[in-house]
Amino acid sequence: MPEHAQPIVTVDVVILSLQDGALNVALVRRDHEPHAGDWSLPGGWVHADQDADALAAAYRILAAKAGLDSPYLEQLKTFANRHRDARGWSVSIAHYALVPMTQAAAPQVKWRPVDDIGSLPFDHAEILRTAVERVRSKTAYSSLPVHLMPPTFTLTELQRVYEQVLGMALDKRTFRRRIEELNLVEPAAAARDAAAAHRPAQRYRVKRRFGKELAMSDRNLV
Amino acid sequence: MPEHAQPIVTVDVVILSLQDGALNVALVRRDHEPHAGDWSLPGGWVHADQDADALAAAYRILAAKAGLDSPYLEQLKTFANRHRDARGWSVSIAHYALVPMTQAAAPQVKWRPVDDIGSLPFDHAEILRTAVERVRSKTAYSSLPVHLMPPTFTLTELQRVYEQVLGMALDKRTFRRRIEELNLVEPAAAARDAAAAHRPAQRYRVKRRFGKELAMSDRNLV
DNA sequence: ACAATAGTGTCTGTCAGACAATATACA
DNA sequence: TGTATATTGTCTGACAGACACTATTGT
What is the CATH number of the domain that holds A198? Predict the structure, then answer.
């Protein structure tokens, strides 16, 4: 067994969703010192007796601290050094989760735009930056943003979400060609937009096999 | 402080190099139980008193257990669950390192082709698989494999290394166009190939600013 | 018919891959 | 000159981006 003092191990989760047309992160108030009462990323100790692995711990934290479920949760990176927590050498196995924009969080959660965050405790600002970079990078060549969508959506709505995540305009023709190549969505029968003074859009849903997976493109989507 | 039993934290390093024209991994014999005497990935406890962060621990392990230095060492993924080590819930912050094919390892190191590994202790086979996947993936759109090269090399040699890492043939014209676009290498003056009955190749070296960095392409290299 | 958004057709410049032509060593 | 590898030129099919045209709804 180890001869050296062992580090503290925690799991933190960057929960991302769309609110008011912008990528937002879920923050919660810290229960304990240090930084008690400050808004921070939800996180917690590994519960060795109940968490099978780090991913399970992240799902537990997502549910317990934010009241959310996620169709896409994965490990981001591990932040481990002697400076990030004044209590000593500590390890945060950081994860990130995408949550559909229609899902309601627990009342203690505050959503904040990822590009307009004040300061966060520990190295949570760096963890958030890393998560947003990862999401933007994956968005460019995969179906990642569909996990931010409601159960059915139009292609125009999906394109808006890609644009909001990437922060840039996309060409309609190219975007639709790519989505078709990914073989990602199928028409959601009979459900059409509410009446409006223009042609209604076809609504789509993500094909079942991409429920928890990603469709990857070998070339860039945008 | 934590109310729950804390996991064990280790750092493991997947050290990759080219040997005999194939991607190889460095294995060492384990000192201690469990699996004492078995060949495994080099790893060890975090030394909270001397390692500033996980990356520093990986560099320490690279030097101390394999006698190597690496121009490219980064975090891979963290393997954390209750099953990987019979002693209990444990965390391995896994890293991977590329080492130039000309660098000699310590005598206790055994190089093994990554596609022909027997069984490895713990989940080291899975860690190795993940590392090789990552390297192949990054090779497709970045300059990663230059860190396997000796100080100077020809473009043909560089192409062979890309091909050996990816396991597929590349088109010469396309490859050279991409490398030029990356603005990655510069001619190594006056150093030309040994005499041979054909035109000698220009030798190149990696530009200084890519010594520890990667050049990324926005499209695929291959 | 008009307005507004959805959806599709198509042109054009760019470029990856293929392949050929030229260059430069030594024998 | 012949052989072998290096290096560069160039053709062609594919396709991303641009843009316009058609489709479909309510007013």
Answer: 1.10.10.10
Return the residue matching tokens 């000593």: A88
Is B107 in the A-facing interface, judged by CB distances under 8 Å? Answer: no
Going A34 to A38 to A40 to A43, the CA torsion angle's sign is: positive
CA distance B12 to B58: 7
Given this model, what pLDDT does residue A192 score? 56
Q: How far is B9 from chain A (nearest CA, A)?
A: 7
Does strand C come within 7 Å of the CB of A172?
yes
Using DSSP's 3-state secondary structure scheme, residue A176 falls into helix
pLDDT in tens, B122-162: 999 999 999 999 999 999 999 999 999 999 999 999 999 99
Query: How far: B197 CA to C27 C1' (Å)?
Result: 7
**Treating both helix axes as pointing N-terminal to C-terminal, what angle do B155-166 and B124-139 enclose, rounded to 10 degrees?**
140
Look at residue A23 and tell me whether its pLDDT is greater than 80: yes
Q: What is the pTM of this model?
A: 0.94
Are B124 and B174 contained in the same domain?
Answer: no
